[in-house]
Request: fold
Amino acid sequence: MRKALITIYLIMVCICISFTAKSQEEGRKVNIIPFPVIATNPTVGFAYGVSPGFTWHMGNSQNTSMSSVVGALVYTTNQQLLFSVRGNTFLEGDKWNIMADLRYQMTSQPTYGLGTGSGSIHPIVNNDYGYSERHYLKKHQMIEYDLIRAYMTGLRRYEDTRFFYGLGYHLDVIYDIDDHLLNLDTIPQQITQHYRYNTLKNFSTTGNTVSGISLNLMYDSRDNIANPYSGRYAFASWRINPKFIGSTQNSSTLWLEYRDYFNLSEERPRHMIALWTYGWFVTSGNLPYMNLPAIGWDMFSRSGRSYTSGRFRGEDLVYTEVEYRFPLQRNSDLLGGVIFANTTTASSRTEDINLFQNINLAYGLGLRVMINKKSRSNVNLDYGWATNGSQGLFISLNEVF
Reply:
């Protein structure tokens, strides 16, 4: 089974790469940014590797939006190996938009229970396991796991509008889970949130699969997907994950996303306020603990600056971020700055925590270096702080949103 899944993953990687090859064969210039990765943040510790970016046009640039793909091969001091190919391709005349998110990871992640609030680590009632006392885990709970992700979505443009509609296939296989703090041999047993949730929902505690088909609607009027100066973006995706195509259990989820860009200067379009918000909801059935909506699990892993990936997780999650962007030079766009703030709220149906009951806040600032003026590709260096004490340095390619 695992060999078959890896084969599917490699086939989808080849499909994604073929778009770049096709563009080169047709004589269209592909801009390549061989971006080295040297970074530190709460998820990876210290990371080093390469994350090349590719931008090109599949047709005439007058009527075809720019395509963008970002790859990554990274090793971290937390002994993580991360490989990914993620991109957004517009075919000639913007008749089709193809989105791909392909990952293979041997990784680890601290988890903090479900929902948002003070500490976000909630009491575990050992009555569920034959004990009468409450048991508290005072610290984060580290989990090691391997991940195969293969997402591919095709969207067709509706007539001459900026509306698109289409279908997608989405596969997540998380396996070889090692729940570090779990200890069933002690009295009382040391039960982690991951173990408790998956046991209550009848999932395996060592690995699960979510395989689904999505129905998608998109509106995209951005002038540049790597670094927008104007336009807006809206995306809705209803994903159905039935057992008969490989999911461990039946479930469905809904993703709703909106982005907008407000210029503050006609002469300097880089001087702006940018808004990003999304809601991610389990609409039926159950998902495994590690597949529940969580910050940092969006397509490009950009949400939740200041926090470790997956810091907040729940059956329902709403995330909002506002960023003030401005040039740092009077007559050049080489250097820019940003000030950002974000909020996260998540629910936990098993812990009776409602959405919007608790909201966690983070904020920070960053530097932008435009390394390709034509494609507006930026190198981003951001430092963020959160009200719960979390902080970190985040380095990425292209604007965060």
Residues 2-25 form the longest helix (24 residues).
